[in-house]
Specification:
By secondary structure, this protein is mainly alpha-helical. The protein folds into two domains: 73 residues, no CATH class; 105 residues, no CATH class. The chain is built from nine helices and no strands. Helix 5 packs across helix 6 and helix 5 crosses helix 8. It is globular and about 60 Å long. The N and C termini lie far apart (57 Å).
Length: 178
């Protein structure tokens, strides 16, 4: 399906489910959805949107839409890129004072990245136009490593005596700092 037709499809379903719908007039949102789902057959996309319309009362997040497509599990590289993109998107969508809504959109893996990066208010305060690509890469890599840890069944960081110390705490412990 060409990009113009895909944009029309997205805007049609946005009109049906306007709550939490991205602004597809911004090139970033449209580009993300087009890159992620634009290559799929129109009938498959329409069926997934119809399922979303019947099951939820808001425009689906990319993660939710993937589930409606029937592909709830994706490889860790795709998932880590998606997590980073969701974090960036939720900063502008929900702001610093709507952490619960952001957490719901970002999902458990993404929220773990947020927690290890200082929490939602910290994420919102440090993200700027100048550092978006750097932070996105860091969050993508962190999400990939957390997904790999989960796959391998690793539950704690080496040298960390509690989970709250996170990565920075483990580094300080490794350097002999308290």
């Amino acid at each position: 399906m060409d990009d113009g037709r895909f944009a029309k499809l997205l805007n049609y379903y946005k009109s049906i489910m306007p709550y939490r719908a991205p602004d597809f007039s911004q090139s970033g949102a449209l580009h993300y959805w087009t890159k992620k789902f634009g290559g799929l057959d129109e009938k498959v996309l329409a069926a997934a949107f119809q399922k979303a319309v019947s099951e939820i009362d808001h425009f689906p997040s990319p993660r939710e839409f993937l589930e409606f497509l029937g592909g709830g599990k994706v490889d860790s590289a795709v998932e880590s890129r998606q997590v980073a993109a969701l974090i960036v998107g939720c900063v502008s969508r929900w702001g610093w004072n709507n952490a619960k809504m952001a957490e719901k959109d970002i999902g458990p893996l993404g929220w773990r990245v947020v927690e290890l990066s200082g929490g939602w208010p910290q994420i919102c305060s440090i993200l700027t136009d100048r550092n978006t690509s750097t932070l996105t890469a860091q969050w993508r890599d962190l999400a990939a490593s957390l997904a790999e840890k989960e796959r391998l069944g690793i539950t704690a960081l080496p040298g960390a005596d509690n989970e709250r110390k996170g990565i920075n705490g483990a580094i300080r412990l490794a350097l002999g700092e308290k």
